[in-house]
Amino acid sequence: MSAAQILARGLGKDFGGRKAMNNIDLALGGGLVTVLGPNGAGKTTLLRCLATVLKPDTGSLLIDGLDPVHESDRIEIRRRLGYLPQEPGLAGSAKVFDLVDYMAVLKDHTEDRRRRHLVFDALERVGLADRCTDKVSDLSGGMRQRLGVAQALVGSPTLLLLDEPAAGLDPDERFRLREIVAERRHRTTVVQSTHLTEEAAISDIVLVMAGGEITFDGTPAALAQIATGRAWVQADQPVGVRASWRQPDGTYRCLGTPPVGATLVEPTLEDGYLLLSSVVPA
Amino acid sequence: MSDTQWNIDPARIDQNWRAITIELDAPRPGPIEAGLRRVGFPAHLTRLMVATPGLRRAWYLAVAIVVVLALAPFDDTATRDDLFNLLLLAPLVPVLGVAFSYGVESDPAHEASLATPMRGIRLLITRAAVIMAVSMGVLGLVSLMAPGRSPWAFAWVLPAFAVTTLALALMTVLTPRRAAGVAAAVWIVGVFLARAVSSDLLAAFGAQGQALMLVSTIAALAVVWLRREQFDRLESHV
């Protein structure tokens, strides 16, 4: 089965009068999509709607042409779905194999031998096949996160939704997770949320969210280009710029409108994101 | 030396070796799961039954209550008060199990499990059915130990269905534990009310009471079915 196609028009969701997500349009099909934004931007709400566990208040959503409003369509979408919530809910007393096996049962893999193979496949993909009988409480934070990904991967879904998979991980584990996720992008539509710009760099598409809305939809290169001609370095501490920070060599990297004669630098994805984000008003 | 040529497909050897490794490496089921398998529940079903810590606690709680009930006097010295206590408490055993078997309060993987084809209502009904089957089976054995109490010894069966299905219906608007609490309270108040009104200790368990339980069960199941989407979404927090 090929990568899932997602088509959304005007998706919105309110919680107690607060707009968590507003007027979201999406057209995705294959590849790695990163939803980038600060905490409270609406990333989790969007992923929960795509995972069909939240019902949008407004707009329409089709996944492979199936409408999650209808019960039978919703079930069919869930057959194609792998979902890692922000709180994966991995019971510490459970064994590694058993947790993935449980998820495989929930995904309707009821034939025992085949299910065991699927579970081992998923654990192998995340490098935990040799920890089958270990308790979850014996795993490191990074391993637990990989276990959550294994739960999402079991059964080879065509739509993989990962909510903040890299949060709280050390650089080694982040790299490892990135490899696992990137490996899936050719057969699967992978949508991951993050507030870490480096996680977005390897994406095919980046969606920047702020205040419940998508403020950017494009490639990582296009996001970086937003800062073209608006990123420079200088020796003195800057005044009146949009954002600046001291670099390891002692110079200041600045974003905004450069002064005459400024030393412009190659913009990065982070520069583009900071210029877009609500923290640094555009 | 033999000149025999062995034509063995290396891929097939790998495949077989992998299958053996998987069978050997998969952890053995725990005591509850193994017990359920021994009495005939299929492996995938038992995995659903014991996977969450809340559910395991529910099993222990249910077993503890059944043991307490089993310790009640079941010989000729047993009074109608003993019978009343059995009939009052027995319907609460399955509802306790159901209360701890589902929802964000009991199941850490609740959100992830909602996004699967098993989904809320099927998972809840499956767990509730197994909990009902096991706890009512054990309670049935307890009742059989009560000589001379027929036909009252099994008068808790319909109430057990009624209280549990009422809790399921209430779960469409309340969290599972609150729903179970309200259903249990309704049951206890109802029994004492019937006892006070009729001056018969076992009034709630008579023919009229049983008919009411049956109607209540059917009505509650209808509510559960009609409002099943409430179990399927995170907004409900069930």
Series of secondary-structure elements of chain B, N-terminal to C-terminal: HHHHHHHHHHH
CATH class of the largest domain in chain A: Alpha Beta
- Please give the domain count of chain A: 2
What is the 3D form of chain A?
Answer: globular
Number of E strands of chain B: 0
Largest sheet of chain B: none
Mean pLDDT of chain A: 90
Question: Number of helical segments of chain A?
Answer: 9
How do the strands of the widest beta sheet of chain A line up side by side?
A: 5-6-7-3-8-9
**Relative helix content of chain B:** 55-70%
What is the string of SSEs of chain A from the N terminus onward? EEEHEHEHHHEHEHEEHEEEEH
Question: What general outline of chain B do the C-alpha atoms trace?
Answer: elongated
Biggest protein-protein contact in the assembly: A-B, 49 and 34 residues
Oligomer state equals heterodimer
Q: Rg of chain A to the nearest angstrom?
A: 21 Å
Radius of gyration of chain B: 23 Å
Number of helices of chain B: 11
Taken as a percent bin, the fraction of beta residues of chain B is: under 5%
Index terms:
heterodimer, A: 282 residues, alpha/beta, Rossmann fold, six-stranded mixed sheet, four-stranded antiparallel sheet, 9 helices, globular, B: 238 residues, mainly alpha, 66% helix, elongated
Tell me what you see in this structure.
The complex is a heterodimer of chains A (282) and B (238). The mean pLDDT of chain A is 90. Chain A contains nine helices and 13 strands. The N and C termini of chain A lie far apart (42 Å). In chain A, helix 3 crosses helix 4, helix 3 packs parallel to helix 5 and helix 4 crosses helix 5. In chain A, strand 8 and strand 9 form a beta hairpin. In chain A, the strands form three sheets. Chain A has a six-stranded mixed β-sheet, with helices on both faces. Chain A has a four-stranded antiparallel β-sheet with strand order 11-12-10-13. A three-stranded antiparallel β-sheet of chain A has the order 2-1-4, covered by helices on one side. Chain A has 282 residues and is α/β, with parallel strands linked by helices. With 238 residues, chain B is mainly alpha-helical. In chain B, 66% of the residues lie in helices and 0% in strands. Classes of the chains: A alpha/beta (282), B mainly alpha (238). The interface between A and B is large, with 49 and 34 residues.
